[in-house]
Structure formats: structure tokens, C-alpha cells
Amino acid sequence: MGLIFYFNSCAGTKTKSEVKEVSSDGYHLVWNDEFEIDGLPDSTKWNYDHGDGCPHVCGWGNNELQYYTKKRLENARVSNGKLIIEAHKEKKGNKEFTSARLISRGKADWKYARIEVRAKLPSGRGTWPAIWMLSTDWNYGGWPESGEIDIMEHVGYQADSIFGTVHTKAYNHGINTHVGNSAFYPDAESSFKTYTIEWSADKIDWFVDDNHYFSFHNEHKTFNEWPFDQRFYLIMNLAVGGNWGGVEGVAEDIWPQKLEVDYVRIYEKKSTSE
Q1: Which of 170, 179, 233, 238 lies closest to 204, judged by CA?
Q2: Residue 74 known to be catalytic
């Protein structure tokens, strides 16, 4: 996945009391969820993907082992100021695990923005949490033509690494041309970190706790290289096993496991015409 970086894990962390409407570099807060009301996630902000992905892409296209539930507190809930996405070892449908995948599709999407998600990751072989984005309108076609932005991915068997990646028609793992990088954070499973992208018309930058570790630049060719001039929505999920998460198997004795999210904050820059 490229070069690996190590950063001070205490740098750049924020608390809820420090929410700013306007950042120092001109970004304005346009959407956020601080997860302050216990119960199911806010239905005005979040929808769910649910089921096992069948009949079209069983295992959600990656041979994953979980069944995503909808409006089930055991798998997705707000508690004590945090969103908890929790995977359980329990049979549902044809799957041996349950979990949740929250999406902002139909509620909110963005084109060119700073996306911040502060989260603490699960641990153990077989866990595969992700914070990522897909195209709202799929104007360039199906995956990967319309693009994918992986803000943060983590696999339990490589516990000390955070990954940021893009997928396009020209650059994707299906043809082994995907583009990304990784950062070394050995405490990502034990402490909250802020996972961020800054996405403009020219490039996408990736950060952990405000430490930059990867950039993907617009080559100004075609949508095959850069489909990121469209609206995208946010996804947060905890998968189990699969083509990447299950490379070294799935531990039997670690469940349940949690992806904990402290906040989601979306910032945009005002246009020069305003």
C-alpha cells in the first residue's frame, strides 16, 4: 500500500466543545452529527444498507460474513455521546454474524468538502471497519466507474495501520491498480482519532489527527481517472471477514466488537461568487 508513516497520536484531536463553524483555512461547517441523543441513530441524517448483499453482490461484493441489520440497537445505537456500530457472532439469514452499515444517502451528500470523523476502531482478526464514500448519482456507471473514496479502512490482522484509498475505472483493486497509502498508528484500536479528507477539484488529501499522509491528484484527463466531480455520500460500517478483512481468518473468541464514532463533521468552502 505504499510508504508507511508514524505520527504523534496525541496531535490534532478535538473535543465536542471545540466545534467550530468556520475553520482557520476557510471551511464552513455545513452538516454534523455529535451523537448526543441515546437510542437509534438520527433518522433525519442516516439510512441503512441492510441484508447480505444478495442477489446482486452477495457478501457485499467482498465475500463478507455479516448480515447488516436495520434499526436494531444491538448493531447500531447512540450511547453516552457516541455512535456504536457493533458486530455480533450470531446467525441471521445465511450469515454467521450481524453488524450495521450506516449511510447518508438520501439524507445528505457533498461535492468538494472537508470530511472529519472521530472514531475508535475494533480489534481482532476478522474485523474490517471502514469510513468511506460512494457516488450518489452514479453518472459515470457502476463500480468502479463512478468512483469510491476510502477515508479510513482498517483490518484487524494488521492492527497498527490505517489505510486511505481511491478506486476509479483506471485505478482499482480489481485490476490491481488501486492507489492509496497507509499510516502507522499502533493505538488506533485503543484511542479516538480524527480521520479526515480534504477534497477539492484538484486533489484529495488524507489526514489522521491533522497529520497528512496521502494525496490523490486530478490528472485532468477523463472520468476514468477522476470521477470525483460529482456528489458523494458517506458510509460507516463494520464488516466481518471478506477478501481483505478475512485474509488471516476470523477469530472465534473476540465478539462482539465495536466501531465507536464520536462525531461526524462536514465542512465546505464558500464559492468566490458568494
Answers
A1: 179
A2: no
